[in-house]
Amino acid sequence: MSLLSVGVDIAKQTFAGAVWIQGASRSLGEFPNRQAGFEALAARLEAERARVGAALIQLVLEPTGGYELGLAGFARAQGWRVSRPNPRHVRDFAKGLGQRAKTDKQDALLLARYGAERQPPPWAPLPAAVSELESLLARQQELEQMLRQERNRQQGLAGRPGVAASVLPNLAQVIEALERAREQVEAAIQEHLKEQPALAEQARELRAVPGVGPQSVLPLLVLLHRWHALTGGTGTAKKLTAYAGLDPLTHQSGTSVRGRETISRMGDRRLRARLYMCALGGVKGQNALRAYYQRLVGRGKAKKVALVAASRKILIWAWAVFRDHVSFQAEKALPQAA
After folding, report:
1. Do 60 and 120 contact (CB within 8 A), yes or no?
2. Residue 253, class by beta-carbon neighbours within 10 Å (0-12 exposed, 13-18 middle, 19+ buried)?
3. The pairing of beta strand 248-249 with beta strand 24-32
4. CB neighbours (10 Å) of residue 146?
5. For the residues 82-107, what does the mean pLDDT come to?
6. 244-290: pLDDT as tens digits
7. Considering only CA atoms, which of 211, 208, 199 is closest in space to residue 289?
8. What ranges do the domains of the chain cover?
9. Which CATH code fits 3-118?
10. Closest Cα to residue 111, out of 90, 92, 129, 125?
11. For the segment 163-213, what is each residue's pLDDT rounded down to a tens digit?
């Protein structure tokens, strides 16, 4: 046996572990989600590995809002192979097995089996500079969401009878504080790009891709870095569109069944929404994206379908620019859009 598959279902305070050995899973119990728990798990796994003669430990964790990153980093330092599969893939795997119940213990057992049977790709952390940029962008997005919520409350309460006199001033104070916080984060993002000229140059190159604007370029840059880390820089454009959930799904059976074409929606829905808005704006200009969009519409494609395809094309072009460290060239992109 060359690989010991380990599944971990993790929460804020604790995590449950399990192993898959010779066609059967076995629970390892619950551990605290801190250094002492990591070390206790390592001791159990080293004993299991010696017992079954495994050459490698594979740790499978589902992304859970960052609670898994401490253990993931510890595992990589031990030389284990770490995988963080898409939760939807794991859910589909469970459905295929007919599993209905859901507990921490059962989820850990499921992940151990999933690792052994599906062999998910290894996880590689983002470079530190990119990870810091991602955290700043996440905070910026959180603040923007809170601002929208508070402004909606402010508008909803304005002029409404029965509202205490202190409520609206309090809302105004909160909005002002959130605006200051957002400005601070935006300044921190710009300072980070000044300190990381390589990232700033990559962002500048991506801005030349039709449809990519100031609001979308940095989230797109983080996605491309994540795909590069996941695939070791060898990932294809086709697999990237699948990773983002923009890969087309065809529903066809025999000669009479023709279902509506759609996309898999397997990736980050917020990123897909950004790319769609990029396409919506990009096709209004005189550029390669507009030419591609018009070709599709001219062939009878619905405008919304053509816009989704344009979103996919933006991602493909962006990956080529990022991967090859080249500037976007419309004359080369246009033949690809045929």
Report:
1. yes
2. exposed
3. unpaired
4. 16
5. 88
6. 989 887 544 455 445 456 777 777 888 899 999 999 999 999 999 99
7. 211
8. 3-118, 128-195, 217-336
9. 3.30.420.40
10. 90
11. 999 999 999 999 999 999 999 999 999 999 999 999 999 999 999 999 999
